[in-house]
Design goal:
CATH class: Mainly Beta
Helix content: 10-25%
CATH superfamily: monomeric porin ompg
Strand order of the largest sheet: 1-2-3-4-6-7-8-9-10-11-12-13-14-15
Distance between the termini: 43 Å
Radius of gyration: 21 Å
Order of helices and strands: HEEEEEEHEEEEEEEEEH
Number of strands: 15
Number of helices: 3
CATH topology: Porin
């Protein structure tokens, strides 16, 4: 009986992922900001690297594990930022996999002193694959054997191009931007049908304030309030919260959900999770950890979500000081 339940759960999880066609989400979305929008490419002082790994709902067998690696660089001579983003997502003990590599370009326009606008484009190549041998089908359960429907299924892998864009407006105090993903709506069907990937919209922004006292000069305290709204097909979600920063330590609290505003089921709550985040910077290396406490109907069953991020910015301290005097993106580091 446990095997049947496990097999059914695996199929259900995979079916839900396939039907929704949604991108992976990250709680620490500013740890790898170019995943939000290509307009963040080159918003560091020089060269920046970031890594984020998320294990969502670990209490469910073969649930969701996602990872992003990003590298971006700012070229002051041509007011441009370039980026490389590598993403991987798997579900169902690796049965369903998505991988992509994306090149990004952003052009920085100084509208007036310390006020900037950054339009951006990205072009990617993606692979969507399934390993049917890792799924459990009904005829396998009925026969009690290893031979199953998957031996007769085709369509184990598909490749396609993926295009997106973004726009970012920022000052030293606040920022607001938008990311547009899957603008060409690539066909991601593994069975020869037509299953167009829905366009994803991301709206994000925030505000930063600094507290200084005669005692606190070298390491000022910052409060950052921010939001990130995502919509893809009929599904949408909102992250809203804040960070408290006093280098080298960081802490944050987030709420994910849109109460009483579920687009595809009016009257039902769209709450998902509360996220607690802590971070530290050691010798220019950022290390962040966050935990999602589930508050949806899966509370007590999902195991929440764990997320670890690493970041490193390669620039001398003199370079950082000179660049920060001219341009600074005030969004958080995690």
């Amino acid at each position: 009986m446990n095997g049947i339940r496990t097999g059914g759960l695996l199929i259900g999880v995979l079916a839900a992922l396939a039907m929704r066609g949604q991108d992976a989400q990250f709680a620490q979305f500013y740890a790898v900001p170019t995943y939000l929008s290509p307009a963040f490419a080159g918003t560091g002082t020089q060269t920046r690297m970031g890594l984020a790994v998320r294990d969502q709902w670990p209490a469910f067998p073969g649930a969701f594990v996602s990872a992003n690696f990003a590298l971006d660089h700012y070229m002051p001579g041509v007011n441009s930022g370039v980026g490389l983003l590598v993403s991987h997502d798997r579900a169902g003990s690796g049965a369903l996999r998505y991988s992509s590599i994306t090149g990004q370009y952003a052009y920085e326009i100084e509208l007036k002193r310390k006020v900037f606008l950054r339009p951006a484009l990205q072009i990617g190549w993606a692979n969507h694959a399934v390993d049917y041998s890792k799924l459990v089908f009904s005829d396998q359960l009925a026969r009690g054997g290893d031979v199953g429907t998957y031996e007769y299924l085709t369509g184990r892998s598909i490749n396609y191009a993926d295009f997106g864009g973004g726009l970012l407006y920022f000052t030293p105090k606040y920022w607001i931007g938008a990311g547009f993903h899957h603008l060409n709506r690539p066909n991601q069907s593994l069975l020869g049908n037509e299953a167009r990937m829905p366009i994803k919209l991301s709206l994000h922004g925030g505000w930063r304030t600094t507290f200084r006292t005669p005692i606190i000069q070298e390491h000022p305290q910052n409060l950052v309030l921010a939001f990130n709204y995502r919509a893809q097909e009929k599904y949408d979600q909102l992250d809203v919260g804040g960070y408290f920063e006093r280098e080298p330590f960081y802490a944050g609290l987030w709420y994910r959900g849109i109460p009483l505003m579920k687009r595809y089921a009016q009257g039902y709550s769209n709450r998902d999770a509360l996220t607690v985040l802590v971070g530290v910077i050691i010798n220019d290396v950022r290390i962040g950890y966050s935990y999602d406490l589930t508050i949806s109907r899966l509370v007590g069953q999902s195991g929440g979500a764990h997320e670890i991020t690493l970041g490193y910015e390669m620039a001398s301290r003199s370079k950082k000081r000179s660049m920060s005097r001219r341009r600074v993106v005030p969004c958080a580091k995690f």
